[in-house]
Design a protein that fits this description.
Shape: elongated
Structural class: mainly beta
CATH topology of the largest domain: Jelly Rolls
Helix content: under 10%
């Protein structure tokens, strides 16, 4: 081997060593990227803005970066992740749909070709909203009619400012703080509910109401329920609501049956009644146990539709029967007094004739029964056919109703039964009633009976006013005022 060959071999060895050194030197420059979670956060009632800063890429291209957060002190990519798609080193992430007055942890992250690195985990707490800022107010109700595979969820939305509610619904999941939304086909304020089916038995679910408005998405409190199991279901009592009977204006008798295939003890039973579906106001029976039972519910409003469902309470909870519907009857008023023409208070009257005469009404013996009020006979006191559009032929008196009620009276405006009576207008405290009723009575000739509309309890000034027909001779008779109260 000559000197030239030896020299070439040594140079080849030297270049090989240099190549290996250069290779290791280059590979040593690729490492995890460096990211920092900045402390200058912006925190609201249900949102927060978290900032991250990429210090270096570790010598490898950045694949993704962002913020992760959770209730745990060291959130990672297995928790909620929000990505930043920008190219700047500093970035900001808006976190929404948070619970107010709740503590969270967040940290920035970055991933390059080597792996994932995290910034410092920072703690933040959303703030408690002031009462004035709670608009709209979103309320989550307890779940009802929970079975093995279904439940009815309910809630309500109210607003003092008339804010627009574009959507509403529920968030439901098997883990706390659900964010999966199930919007309903409705919007606006008010109460709402929805039946959820296809649930797993013996499973705890967490839900909360939500609504979307110009302020963002607002959530109600979180509520949980647990679907029942087959073994538990066999222990449940069966509650059957029967039709109600003995319905009056203010009461009804409700009927039901409770049965069970187990030896479960019935602690209490009764009925829930109200003016909307699935009422919750309880009327508890004085008896307990299984079998048929009835309960008379009083204090109801007349002419009102009620929903009623039977219930029973056991150690496993409260169980309900189906809703049945009934409508209370019209109230029956009692006759309080019958007044003749001289036994009313505050009497004031007036008539006006075509000849311009004006005077108060008098007393006549030709009434419906005995004496009556009369605007004097036109043959003796001038033509009383009124031509004034406003009419000035009236009787006015005062009356105190201890309860709401009405009054009736008989009247006649012509001396011949072949003519149609002029129907009067009834005024209560200066306001004309819109729906009094009038009826003929053949036994009493051409007298008609008038019945006022309902009058509220209290002291009232009552006026019976006739509008005459121009050019027609007529007189006005009023008799037998009868007062009824409920």
């Amino acid at each position: 081997m000559n000197l030239f060959t030896i020299t070439l071999l040594k140079m080849h060895q030297i270049f090989g060593v240099l190549f290996v050194l250069l290779l290791f030197t280059h590979c040593g420059k690729e490492k995890l990227a460096n990211v920092t979670t900045l402390e200058n956060m912006t925190i609201g009632t249900n949102s927060a803005v978290i900032h991250g800063s990429l210090k270096n890429d570790g010598g490898s291209p950045i694949i993704k970066k962002g913020i992760c957060y959770s209730f745990d002190s060291l959130p990672d990519l297995t928790n909620v992740v929000l990505y930043d798609n920008g190219s700047k080193a500093k970035y900001s992430i808006l976190i929404e749909n948070l619970l107010f007055n709740t503590t969270y942890f967040a940290r920035a992250f970055v991933q390059n070709g080597i792996g994932i690195s995290y910034g410092k985990s920072i703690r933040f707490s959303t703030v408690e909203p002031s009462e004035a800022s709670l608009d709209p107010v979103v309320i989550t109700s307890q779940a009802t009619l929970v079975s093995q595979s279904s439940a009815i969820l309910g809630g309500s939305i109210s607003s003092n400012t008339g804010i627009s509610i574009s959507s509403r619904g529920f968030c439901l999941n098997t883990t706390p703080h659900p964010i999966i939304k199930y919007p309903l086909n409705s919007s606006g304020t008010g109460s709402f509910s929805s039946s959820f089916t296809g649930l797993n038995e013996s499973t705890t679910y967490y839900f909360r109401t939500f609504c979307t408005c110009p302020l963002g998405t607002i959530y109600g409190e979180e509520v949980s329920f647990t679907t029942i199991s087959n073994s538990t279901l066999s222990s449940y009592p069966s509650v059957t609501t029967f039709s109600s009977n003995l319905i009056s204006a203010n009461s009804a008798t409700c009927n039901a049956n409770i049965s069970s295939s187990s030896s479960i003890s019935i602690l209490s039973r009764g009925f829930c009644a109200g003016t909307s579906l699935n009422p919750t106001i309880q009327y508890v029976a004085s008896t307990s146990g299984l079998g048929d039972f009835s309960l008379n519910i009083t204090g109801l409003n007349s002419l009102t539709t009620y929903y009623v469902r039977a219930f029973c309470t056991t150690s496993l909870g409260t169980f309900y029967g189906a809703n049945i519907i009934f409508t209370t009857l019209a109230p029956i008023a009692s006759l309080i007094t019958t007044n003749n023409c001289n036994s009313l208070s505050g009497i004031n009257s007036n008539y006006q004739g075509l000849n311009g005469t004006s005077d108060s009404w008098g007393i006549s013996t030709g009434g419906h029964i005995g004496n009556c009020w009369i605007a004097p006979d036109p043959m003796n006191s001038g033509d009383l056919g009124s031509t004034s559009p406003s009419g000035t032929n009236y009787i006015e008196f005062t009356r105190t109703f201890n309860n709401s009620g009405y009054f009736t009276f008989w009247f006649n405006t012509y001396p011949s039964p072949s003519l149609t009576n002029i129907q009067p207008t009834i005024y209560i405290d200066g306001v004309a009633q819109t729906s009094p009723t009038f009826s003929e009575n053949s036994y009493h000739g051409w007298f008609m009976q008038a019945t006022s509309s309902i009058i509220t309890a209290g002291f009232h000034t009552i006026k019976i006013k006739f509008i005459g027909i121009g050019g027609t001779n007529c007189f006005y008779k009023i008799d037998e005022l009868m007062f009824y109260e409920y």
